[in-house]
Design a protein that fits this description.
The protein is α/β, with parallel strands linked by helices. The protein has two domains: 119 residues, Rossmann fold; 77 residues, no CATH class. 51% of the residues lie in helices and 12% in strands. It has nine helices and seven strands. The strands form two sheets. The protein has a five-stranded parallel sheet, with helices on both faces. Strands 4-5 form a two-stranded antiparallel sheet. Helix 1 packs antiparallel against helix 6. It is globular.
Amino acid sequence: MDDSDLFAAPHRPPCPSRPLLGLTILLVEDSRYACEAMRLMCLRSGARLRRADCLKSARRHLQLYRPSVAVVDLGLPDGSGAGLIEELAKAAPRIGAILGTSGDDLAEGIALAAGADGFLAKPVTSLADFQDRILSLLPEDRRSAVPCRLTDEVIRPDSIAYREDMAHIADVLTKARDERVLDYVTQFAGGVAHSAGDYALAEAARTLARTRARGVPATAAAARLAGLVQNRLDRREAI
């Protein structure tokens, strides 16, 4: 089902203050903090947002409907988002715009090589940049003929979403018995911390990643990361 089919909301044309009205964005993202930022972006822009937190969930969504735009995180709990981007780029009919997203500086090249039309570097905070990026990548027949009134609003999610990510990290670290799981949670923690400006946690994640890359015991570095995460949960503060 296309996002404009009978189960979609009645069509209303975009307007200057809601330039993405009528679009459905599928966000494939495991971070609640990043999802909340995107939810606020879509709310301000008029777009509908659907979320999948892993590749399996995303493919389940895509069996039921075809969104206007897909935004796919490169680091997901069950694999790389690059594979899903490649699938979407080759599918027919094709989604109007496919974007990769990550806080990793090297991820843009991976996303574009997989077939993405563009890339959103985390943190995504500027509403105007978000709207302009989406509109610039859509096919001409899906763009608004009405001039957009892009506002330079900065979007920042509240601390509740960040705490949910901290709880997720703590839970995964407690249960991690597989090196791949530890690598995933290290990447996840670093990405969330980078997006939220939590520099101490971001550095702890980088230290753990470097330690893992050297192939030496990472017990101390993992304990440091876990301690910082628990500190944020105990204080009931995000940053």
